[in-house]
Amino acid sequence: MEKQHKKGRLHAIERIRALLDKDSFVEIYSGVRHNCSEFGMDKKEIPYDGVITGFGTINGRQVAVYSQDFTLQGGSLGFLHGRKIADIIEAAVNARCPLIGINDSGGARIQEGVNALAGYGEIFYNNVLASGYIPQISIIAGSCAGGAVYSPGITDFVFTVKSLSLLFVTGAKVVKAAVNTDITDEELGGAEVHAEKSGVAHFLAENEKDCFSTVRRLLDFIPHYYGDKMNQTRNDSRIIPWNKSNFSKSKLKKITEILPEKQNRCYDVHEIIDCLTDDGEFLEVHAGFARNIVTGFARIAGVVTGIIANQSDHLGGVLDCDASDKAARFIRYCDAFDIQLLTLTDVPGFLPGPQEEQKGIIRHGAKLIYAYAEATVPKVTVILRKAYGGAYIAMCSRHLKADFVFAWESSEIAVMGAEGAVQILYGKDLKSGSMEFEEKKEEYRKSFMNPWTAAKAGNISEVIKPEETRGKIEAAFAFLADKKDTGKIRKKHGNIPL
Ligand code: HXC
Fold this sequence. Notes:
Elements: H1 2-6, H2 12-19, E1 26-28, E2 51-58, E3 61-68, H3 79-95, E4 99-103, H4 114-130, E5 136-140, E6 143-145, H5 150-154, E7 157-161, E8 166-168, H6 172-179, H7 185-189, H8 191-198, E9 203-205, H9 208-221, H10 249-254, H11 269-276, E10 282-285, E11 293-300, E12 303-310, H12 321-336, E13 340-347, H13 354-359, H14 361-374, E14 379-388, H15 389-394, E15 404-408, E16 412-414, H16 418-432, H17 437-448, H18 452-456, E17 462-464, H19 469-479
Parallel strand pairs: 3-4, 4-5, 5-7, 6-8, 7-9, 12-13, 13-14, 14-15, 14-16, 15-17
Antiparallel strand pairs: 1-2, 2-3, 10-11, 11-12
Helix pairs in contact: 3-4, 12-14, 16-17
Bound molecules: hexanoyl-coenzyme A (HXC).
C-alpha cells in the first residue's frame, strides 16, 4: 500500500472498496498461488497471484469485479492470474451482472512464457462471450502494456484517469528499439491520447475517485444485463397527452432560441439535449473523441435513452471516419441492451477530401448506416436543421427504418446545400454569364431547402415546431414501448463492415 501511496495511487483493494458500496465486497480465490519455477519464481510468493477478484454491490445492485495489484510483480499476468479473471467474467455472465475490471499490469508475466499467453486467451474468449449480454467496464488504473490492452479493447466502456493511465501494445522503450522513434509513454498511450485521439477510452477522469463515481453513475443508467428492465420504467404509467405534459416550460421556450438566425452559424447541440431530457441529466460517452458527433445516455419520461446528435459547434457536425465509428459503436451497444435511440440531425454531409477518402470514409460511414439499419430498438429522429445527402440517410432516416422522423419547420432536407447544387446544375451557364448565381440559389432554396418536399413524399412523419419536440418524442417512445421487430430474415449473422 505504501508503494502505491508514495506514487499518489490507491492500492488494488482500496480501489475496489472505493468503487463498491461500503462493506459489500466478497473476495474469492484469494488462496491461488502461481506454480511457475523458472527464473527463480519458485522463491517468489505472489499473494492471490497478483489479482483480487470477487463481487459486491454498486447502488445496491450486484457487480463482479477484479483489480490487479501492480505492487506484486508489476500486476503481470501469469496463467492462474488470467484464469481468475476469466472465472470472474464467467461468474458475472451466470449471475447476469456487470463486470468491472481495474487494470494495472505490465502484461504477460515474462517468466511464465506461453502459459501467461494462455491466460490472456481465456480472458479474451470470455470477454467476447459476455459481450452484449452483460456490460463490461474497464478502468485503466496504471501502466497497461502488451496483453493488458486487449481485454479493455474488447469491453464496452474504457475509463482512463489523467496522469495515471498508460495503455499501449508496446511502451516507448520498445518503440525506440523497434522503429527508432523518440516518444514518451504519455505521448504514446496517455489518458488524453486515448480519450481524444485513438478513441480507445470512452471516459476521461480527473482522478481515481472521480473515475469510480462516474462508473457508479454509468451503472445507474444502463441495464445490468440483456433483458434487465430496471432502468426502462416510465415515470408515470399513465400516458399524458403530448401537449399537456408538465415538462419544464422554461425549457420548451429555451429550445426555440438556440438555433442561430443564420443557417451557417454554429451552436452547441448539448443545449438542445438539455431542453429535451429529464432534469437535463446527460452522461456523455466519448466526450473528447470525434466531437463532431455527441453520444450519451439520458432519460425521457424516466426511460433510459441513447442520444446521438451531430455537433454543429465542432466541424459543423460533419460526419467523418471517427464520428461514424463512434456513433456506430454506441448505437450497437444500445441496441444490444434494448436502449431506445433518439437521433438529433443537423449534418452537412460526409466530410469530402483525400484524407478522409484514403482513411476509408466509405468503410467507416458504412458502419453507421449498418448499425442504424440493424438496430431494432425504438428509433426516433428529429431533424433540427440541415440533413443533406448520404448523411441524411445515415442519420437514422425513415429509409433505415426509424420508427418516426420529425423535422423542424425551418429544416432543410436536400441532396446538398444550395451553393454546391447550383454550381453543378448550372456550371456552364453561370460561367457564360447567361444565368445569375444568386437567383438560381434562391430558386433551389425555395424548391428543396425545406422539410415539405420530404414530408410530401412521406419521408417525414410530421413537421413540428421546436417547442413541440419534447412532447412529440415522449409520446412516440411511449407508443413504441412494446415494439417488437418482426421483419428479420433468418441467418447466422450479418457482416458489418468492421
Ligand atoms: C514480469 C514484470 C512485468 C512483466 C513488470 N514487471 N512487467 N514482471 N512480467 N511483463 C515487474 C518488474 O520486473 C518489476 O519487478 C515490477 O514489475 C515493476 O516494474 P517496473 O518496470 O519497475 O515499473 P515501472 O517503471 O512503473 O514500469 C511499468 C511498465 C514496465 C511500463 C509496465 O514494467 C514495462 O514496460 N513492463 C513490460 C511491458 C511489456 O512489454 N509487456 C509485454 C509483455 S508481452 P521488481 O521485482 O523489480 O519490483 C505480452 C504479450 C501478450 O503481454 C499478448 C497477448 C495478446
